[in-house]
Fold each of these.
Amino acid sequence: MASGDPIMIVKNNGNKRAQQTKLLLFNALLELMRDTEYKGINVKLLSEKAGIARQTFYRYFTSIDAVLIEEMTRRFDIFFESIEDYLLSKDYHQVSKAILASLKVDDDLFIAIHKVGLSYNLYLPYLEYAKKVKKTVSNVNKLTSKDLLLTEFYAGGLCILLNYWIGNNTDVPLEEFTEVLINALEFLIQK
């Protein structure tokens, strides 16, 4: 699958065994990426490393790229739940700090996604996150066309910002990064 192609993920949420298998695949993929060029990793190799059958892989995913993207989506969902109270209280400094903490904790995943050229495939998960933020802060179920434009702008900017951060080995001073995130959040949630 070429970079930029749409990623299809076969969802099977709610099943503990499914979640464990997906995590096994993700961890095996990260491990393989330490020693093997991404292009050299195929479903057979990944399945063997994870200790599962190839058919099991295809029960949950349509591609190796989808393993990375689904893990990112899963982590975004967990992250959003953790910041919802900060959003409701409009404590954007805490939201930004939580974003940075999440980036540091999840840097293995961000770096892996960046390394294999999938960074821009994160735009849609960022967009869904931005819509959740805007709906939560605005206390609405449906966004106006202006709100939709704002969320598109925010998601694109966040995608580019994270690519820059990862491309610079996460060496951008946290104070500067935090300030930019706070400004971006304030822009997103404006009335």
Amino acid sequence: MEFYNTNKQVQEIIRKTLQQVYECKVGYSPRKYALTVKRARVVKDLLSHSDVGCYSWRVPREILNASVDIQRAYIQAFGDAEATVENHNRYRIRFNSNNSIGLNQIQHMLRTTLGIPSKLRGPYARGKYYLEISSKKWLLLFREKIGFAHPEKADKLAKLNEVPFKFSHP
């Protein structure tokens, strides 16, 4: 099983977490920016929580029924991997996926557990969907309650108050 991320700090978080939880060796392929786990028991356990794949993944039931802190951590990890923070014409966070059902689950957690509204947009080219948070009020709340471990994304979000802001509504 492979985990992809181009940011070395995020890779290190994933590596340490896998080693701590599963007490296993985690390989690395620098050409693909991939962390690799080959132990069958680890892969079996990870796959037992949810389907994987860009069209079939779901938020695991354990996460949907978990505490606010667990849901925050899940959304942060998902955002570190699958979100962008845009700040050219306007600020917004965009979670992207080819899976509208999984994004709907993320949207539900954002709204019901954390009080952060968002809009699901799409499908666009190649079946891509975007879950967007674009109001300054909600972006600030996202930063406060969830944030990013990914340093570039965290830095962009931290600069929210430093630039003029075009308001839009979710």
Amino acid sequence: MKKITAFAGGRIDFAGGWGDGCTLIDPKGEYVLGRVCNVGLELGSQVEITSFENEGVHIVCNGFDEILNEEMDYGGDLDLFLAAIKRFGLNGLEIKAHSHIPYGSGLGGSAAMAVPLTAAIFYAIDFSFRKKAKDGPLPYALKEKIAEEARALEIEEMDISSGWQDQWAAAFGGVNYIYAENDPQKPKREEIFNDKKSNKALENNLLLVYTPKNKKTRRSSSAQHKNVQKIAKLELLSDIARQGEKAQTALRKLDFKILGQVVFQAWETIKQFTNNSASSAQIDWLIKKTMDYGAYGAKACGAGGPGTCVVIIANKKTQDKIKKMIVKKQGYKILPVKISTLGLQVGEN
């Protein structure tokens, strides 16, 4: 068996998160349909699959080294891999994986691992998928299939509630408007742009800042969607969806001032929706400080803090001022912003 290698990236969510995959029905009997604006990153995860001479599946990932089989129970650090083993009946394989996304960063790290893992497995066990993958870049339908299956690892196998924006961003990369039209669980994806000039302009107007951990526990996506069901803040969810639409409109025009304003509004709505539990002292400080320094707007990525903040900046002068301020703060780190133009990649060698 040749070595199969797959790679996919994380994402920055500008607006619309917390509403993707929502199953809440409004008083009119209609679903609250998610609308998300995000961008796929090259910062991501790689998975390699080869044959393994013994029984079970040998997993080597970010310091862990274990042999798993489908009879084992969940509850360990490698549950995502165990879910894949159970779902696809895997045996006699070695899976080596590595994530470059900081743990708990809010950059969709779980999906950035699940998507290449799923793609590599399909490449290994599905002849039709392997043939199409060898013929060139994966077509839309196959990327969508991998995104759906990667999400199913969490929802169906691990019984974890999850939205869909992370898996779609990992599979497709690029600058995205992802929305549910009729079925809240069946998103569609529009590419906002993918030309070098626009990508570079966006990269130059973003800063990605990783904040230090504190004692506060990060909210899981499961808690996120249970919160939706419990609180039923329909108006806020509708606001979140509208902000996703506004963000994509601003991006199409490369209007970073409006984008920054929408991003900040989205963060304020998320804080209101979560009764401020999505934030942390570090994130509050960073957002206020960067905007005092001239940023157009900022928000925490994903489910909130502690984690990573995206900052929409006005120009290089503002960027340099903010960078100098950040490097002086212990525990804060600037992460690279490079747009993934290809999304999921899979092949063998």
Amino acid sequence: MKYVKALEKAGLVGKQAKIYYSLLKSGEATASYTAAASGVERTLAYKVLAELQSMGLVSFSVRDGKKYFSAAPPDAILEDMRERYEDFRSIVPALKTAGVKVSTDAVRTEVYTGKKAAKVIMKQMLASGKDYISAGGGFDFGRMFPNFSRRMMQKIVQRKIKERIIVPEGTKISVKSENSEIRYLPMEHPLLGGFVVSGDSVILLIHASPLTMVSIENPGLSRTFAGYFETMWKAAKE
């Protein structure tokens, strides 16, 4: 099941992931066998096989009057993902300029909830390529997203992004990089939140269920929170 979910994340929709994975395991099979093995209704299986053929992920051969289907190597999916990534990346600059222009004094606020939303925020911070600062407690993204966090730290180093973090004394940071600078501040009261400053954005972290993050884009507010951070940074211990 985990492989089917992984295939869905890679872009296979509906029953495509089940059919593809079934063929990958069997090597070669008829449509009726594939339908039974994947748990997909037979009529629908034919439709899905046709979709996968059009995507270049399934081919067939004819023997003794019967069609036998086989799956293309998973590398084909990876290559398709690369192509889609490059296609999308090429239009990102145009998409950025397509929106309504707002004044630099305007305030843009967005609310994100859930763990997936946290990843979106973190990816946006990476994409900006700017150094960022963070203060607060109750969050250990290294434990929440171990693999993702390790990849993020690698990209921080590659893109020469520096992070400065203030956490309560006794906090263990499970994932960090050579570009991470961490200081500790005595906290007498439990922290249920924190903040991140990245460029003109301030991201408020609320340690609740679900995890909630409020992104506020405003240069003035960003400078204000950066000032708060610097005061805390001076008082914090290495």
